[in-house]
Write a structure and sequence with these properties.
7 helices; mainly alpha; globular; 200 residues
Length: 200
């Protein structure tokens, strides 16, 4: 009888250290709060960046297309493109306005995020080409356009995060770096084609 009791005690003592090791982890991951993990912080950061860049671009697009927010509308934008040496300035104004509006809204809600980022990349490359030679700093320089370009490329590569419409679609649910790289390459090539073919 005494041997059985002593064996049980020794067994419990041998098990208890590993049990306490498993349970006592004050720095380990905690569940229950959606804001507890570092991944949630990344997702919130991506959401804020998407909204800031996306809404900014959508507003610029609406200025070009509709003249909203004290914009120049299609005619004024076409005149600007014509003065800078673009052929088919009305078509350029329409394409630029649609790209900024649709890609900006796409970034904001996180829909087709790599392609939305690529569209903004293409617009910003053309804008930088138009301002090249005016220095770096605003209002005439390229600093603002370069920051928007970097943000768009970063979002295309990193993906939209959890709080995005892409997570609801089977095709776009799993973001891969290859998607972002392909989209960035497409945006850069498209911008180069526009500059070579349509800019005198």
């Amino acid at each position: 009888m005494s041997n059985r009791v002593s064996n049980r005690v020794s067994n419990r003592m041998s098990i208890s250290p590993s049990t306490s090791t498993r349970t006592a982890r004050p720095g380990g991951p905690r569940t229950g709060s959606p804001f507890a993990s570092s991944q949630s912080g990344t997702d919130i950061g991506l959401l804020l960046l998407r909204c800031a860049v996306g809404l900014t671009m959508a507003v610029h697009g609406s200025q070009k297309l509709f003249g909203w927010f004290n914009g120049t509308g299609l005619d004024g934008t076409a005149g600007f493109f014509a003065s800078d040496g673009y052929s088919a300035p009305k078509a350029m104004a329409t394409v630029a306005g649609l790209t900024e509006t649709l890609c900006g809204l796409g970034l904001t809600i996180g829909l087709l995020t790599p392609l939305a980022g690529a569209g903004i990349l293409g617009v910003m490359l053309n804008s930088i080409a138009m301002k090249w030679g005016n220095g770096f700093f605003n209002p005439a320089g390229i600093e603002y356009d370069l920051v928007l370009l970097a943000c768009a490329v970063s979002l295309a590569l990193a993906g939209p995060g959890r709080f995005a419409a892409d997570r609801l679609l089977p095709i776009t649910r799993a973001h891969r770096i290859s998607h972002g790289i392909g989209a960035v390459a497409l945006g850069a090539v498209s911008a180069a084609v526009v500059l070579v073919v349509l800019h005198d």
